[in-house]
Design a protein that fits this description.
Order of helices and strands: EEH
Number of domains: 1
Radius of gyration: 39 Å
């Protein structure tokens, strides 16, 4: 608000309201740290899931090889009995 003294012509400015504008939420350090933590956790979960799937596939392949070996041993033992 501006006040003018009519006798001396002196102008005085008075602040009636002080307005403070906060920076956007996405520039807040807590928001940035939270997002980084969330991304790291998601990447960790994806990594663990991938490792779990690889182990499962390897176990299935090992079981298949074991079953093939058992069948081959049985076939060989039957051939020996026939001969």
């Amino acid at each position: 608000m501006e006040i003018t003294d009519l006798t001396g012509g002196i102008k005085t400015i008075l602040l009636l309201l002080e307005i403070k504008i906060d920076p956007p939420f996405y520039l807040n350090i807590y928001f940035i740290a939270g997002n980084i933590l969330l991304i790291v956790l998601i990447l960790l979960l994806l990594y663990r899931r991938k490792i779990k799937n690889i182990k499962l596939i390897n176990d299935l392949k090992i079981n298949l090889i074991v079953e093939i070996n058992k069948a081959e041993k049985k076939r060989i033992s039957l051939e020996k009995k026939i001969i």
